[in-house]
Amino acid sequence: MFQIIADGLIIGSVVALGAIGLSFTISIVRFSNFSHGELLAWGAYLALLVTSGLAQINEALAAPLGPFSFGWGLLLAMVASAGLTALLALALDAILFKRLRKHGSITLVIASFGAALVLRNLLLFWQGGVPKYFAQNLQIALVLLPRSFGGGLRFTPDQLLVLALTLITVIALHFFLRYSTLGRSMRATAINPALAQVTGIDPERVLRAVWIIGGVLAAIAGVFAGITVQLRPTMGGELLLPLFAAVILGGIGSIWGAVLGGFVVGLAESASVILVGAEYRPAAAFVVLILILMVRPNGLFGERS
Fold first, then answer.
1. Which alpha helices (H) appear in 58-156, and where do they start and end?
2. Domain 2-295 belongs to what architecture?
3. pLDDT, tens digit, for every residue of 35-92?
4. Please, which residues bridge with residue 155 across strands?
5. Considering Cα of 26, then 32, then 37, then 38, what sign does the dihedral take?
6. Distance between CA 183 and CA 181 in Å, rounded?
7. In this predicted model, what pLDDT tens digit does every residue of 229-249 receive, in sequence order?
8. Domain-by-domain residue ranges, the chain?
9. What residues form DSSP beta bridges with 154?
10. Is 60 exceeded by the pLDDT of residue 305?
11. Which helix (H) or strand (E) holds 142?
12. Which of 77, 98, 111, 134 could make an S-S bridge to 47, C-beta 3.0–4.6 Å?
């Protein structure tokens, strides 16, 4: 029982970080961005590229750091990847979405489908279809609870770090949105774009912030997925539906709703592996989504209409 929860939290960490950026796009840019999942995949592979480059410059950067399977090189690469993925998100907006924004959300959604296919196939052409890993070092899981407690509880050091960094990232983002001028501008734009613009808030500045934050969080989520599982060119498409499920489940526009929704999705997928089999994992999240929406149609943290 406890191990199901542990595995669900790991899956949920990746989904939660990706869902926050997607929630921003839906609530502020006002369209469902189906290319957001590909930003996770590109973020992961860009980090792999930077990691390989740093290892060639200095082999010490590739040496495992303490109990973890990776070294300082991957942590530095994650920072670089976050910046590069943010630039990729800004480029997508400048080249595609900004030009089509005046045509309405349906046009933007269709365009995002096309962008997703282009990004996925470019990544497949660049990296091939063989799964890759940030490190090949084996880890021994840490026993946090013995088997006498609900079957035991085990985490690898990498998984514990992912959980800790996810919590730190979400808390930092919460304080940014609550106390910074730009964060308050983003919240105001999400609530009422017209009124926010009348009060002097620059909508283009807010939109740039949305793409940058979404790209950064997507890159971090992609790296976390690569650390805990593996890297695949199709990982963005595989994560897209769980991301949307988490956003809708938590309530569009709510950070903590996206986080909670991500963990609920992760727990549902983890439990389904034991209860009905791994092949039904994607469906499990949507079963939970339907059940919760029947009680709370606006999501767990969504405002009642």
1. 72-92, 98-100, 105-127
2. Orthogonal Bundle (1.10)
3. 999 999 999 999 999 999 999 999 888 888 888 888 899 999 999 999 999 999 999 9
4. 142
5. negative
6. 5
7. 889 999 999 999 899 999 988
8. 2-295
9. 143
10. no
11. strand 142-145
12. 77
3-state helix, strand, coil in the chain (%, to 5): 75, 5, 20
Q: Which helix (H) or strand (E) holds 195?
A: helix 193-198
For residue 302, give the DSSP letter: S
pLDDT digits (tens, 9 = 90+) for 191-224: 888 888 888 899 899 999 999 999 999 999 999 9
Q: Are 139 and 158 in contact (CB under 8 A)?
A: yes
**Contacts by 160-163 with C-beta closer than 8 Å and gap 24+?**
161/68, 162/10, 162/13, 162/14, 162/224, 162/227, 162/228, 163/9, 163/10, 163/13
Contact 261, 246 (CB under 8 A): yes
Distance CA 227, CA 251 (A): 28
Separation CA 68–CA 158 (nearest Å) = 6
155 backbone dihedrals φ, ψ, rounded to 5°: -130, 145
pLDDT: is 154 or 305 the higher one? Answer: 154
In this structure, the number of other CB atoms found within 10 A of the CB of residue 181 comes to 8
Residue 121 corresponds to which tokens in the numbers above?
A: 């196939």
Task: Map residue 192 onto helix, strand or coil.
Answer: coil
Residue found by looking up tokens 């189906």 in the block:
34
pLDDT of residue 18: 93
CA–CA dist 262, 10 (Å, integer): 10
- The structure's pTM equals 0.92
Mean pLDDT of 105-126: 94
Q: How far apart, in whole angstroms, are the C-alpha atoms of residue 110 and residue 116?
A: 10
CA 159 to CA 174: how far, in whole Å?
23
Contacts 24+ apart (CB under 8 A), 92-96: 92/35, 92/211, 93/207, 93/208, 93/211
